[in-house]
Amino acid sequence: MLRHHLPLILFAALAIPATARGQGSEADYYRVISVAVAETATESRSKTWQPAPDGLPLEVSGIAVLDDRRVAVAIRKGEIWILDGVYDDPPAEVTYHRFATALHEPLGLLWHEGSLYTAQRSELTRITDTDGDGTADRYDTVAKGWGVTGHYHEYAYGPKLDGQGRLWVTLNIGLGLKGEQLDHTVQHPELGYRQGLWRGWGLRIDDAGDLVPVCAGMRSPSGLGANAAGDMFYTDQQGNWVGAGTLHHMRERAFFHHADALASAEQPGSPLKDVAAVPNGLPFPEALSRFPQLVPPAVWFPYKKMGQSATDIMLDASEGRFGPFAGQLFVGEFTLAGINRVFLEQVDGQYQGACFPFRSPLASAVLRLAQGTDGSVFVGLTNRGWSSLGRASYGLQRLVWTGKTPFEILEMQARPDGFELVFTRPVDPATAADPASYALRSFTYQYHSAYGSDEIDARPLAIQSAVVSPDGRRVRLRIEGLRELYVHELVAAGVRDGQGHPLLHTDAYYTLNRIPAVDP
Length: 520
Description:
The chain is 3% helix and 39% strand. It is built from three helices and 35 strands. The protein starts with 29 loop residues before the first strand and ends in an 8-residue tail after the last strand. It has a single domain (8-29, 60-401), classed as Neuraminidase. The protein has an eleven-stranded antiparallel beta sheet with strand order 21-22-23-24-35-34-30-32-33-29-28, with no helix packed on it. It is mainly beta. The protein has helices at residues 41-44, 284-290, 429-432; strands spanning 30-37, 60-65, 70-75, 79-84, 95-100, 110-112, 115-119, 123-128, 138-144, 156-161, 167-171, 186-187, 194-195, 201-205, 211-216, 223-226, 232-236, 245-249, 282-283, 299-301, 310-315, 329-333, 338-347, 350-359, 366-371, 377-382, 394-401, 409-415, 418-423, 439-444, 446-447, 456-468, 474-480, 486-491, 507-512. A hairpin with a 5-residue loop joins strand 25 and strand 26 (377-382).
């Protein structure tokens, strides 16, 4: 589903670097409540939460918020359960009711027009309780037709809705297909890539239930979701052709990175035709210049610094009930069992932006995120098949804002001569105006068929000045040597707020696809 990871015994060395954190605790601002987690025996005896029924592996692969008491969760063994009492604190009386069974590894869940929708391995399914007894009695195929060869890595994710109410799914690449699997593939006539039909593509579902291929080049697109403008995004994970984790804007005719997806490029309905060659072994900015269909990610997630395996995407639509980050995206992290935060903006009509650490660790690998009716965030956990940090293998947790505002970089905005930082609290003018309070460097990745990439062509950048706004909420950094299509890594370790406190997280990573021509 995601990708191979290092053995768990090595994970102590992979914790988020000390430079990524200021003083203070994330738990002071965002509490983690275990709704149902298979924790240690000592914790289980505390009786502060109701465990799942004996024998139920609550490997949460999809979450749909139903109301202010209940959520529905899909689990990887092929069932959907409805949990009642999940907002209680502590959740000591959660009840479990099995709603649906006999599904083939559902990897998403959506409550839509009175039914639950999920992407199974070979189809998108609508599941309905028609007689009102609380259990599904109707399973309808909404869409099907993508390729399935039997390879273990051919996961299907979703669905999610865009701003126009349209359903989307994303499809994994199959890795190293061979033998009988090749009998169920399509092949690019000139480039030779082979995959199951539409593998590595983002698909929209039209009103007739037909698949509409939109964009391609995905490796393991386990997260998808819309931003506040209703545009669709997906996350990808480091591997072949993918230098590090990424967030991409899904749109017509875009190609992202994984070349095997081009196997379907000449099929009827494909918007991506006439790809003549794929460069291999070039810095990513140079590959973009040689490959017209290739588009850059909106955001790179630098490997280990911002996790190793990006997963689900959730828009904070709480209008402030989840803290100061309304309108931003939150992205799950599998290997390091955490959640990251993303600020996006558009420059010349193209999305780009910055990612920031947010909250870790959770009890296990974070695969799914869903915002509750009160603004809190439900976190679905499962690490089967791939190791992660954490004390559990699966479960459901809830993240609740304590009402305290952390001192953070809220936004990092591109400017013609640098960046403008927006903070959640007023800064101390002396430290924030000192260029020595900041360090900045830029780097990129190699675009190649090998697995992942080191940071390459790294260069330190000089901060010429730092100007604080009169209200203390903004700092304008003037920088020499900005580079388009490079990641710009900022460490603001010297900045303090008005009470002398450092940032909770000092690091930010801005993907600068376009340098603005003028100030907004």
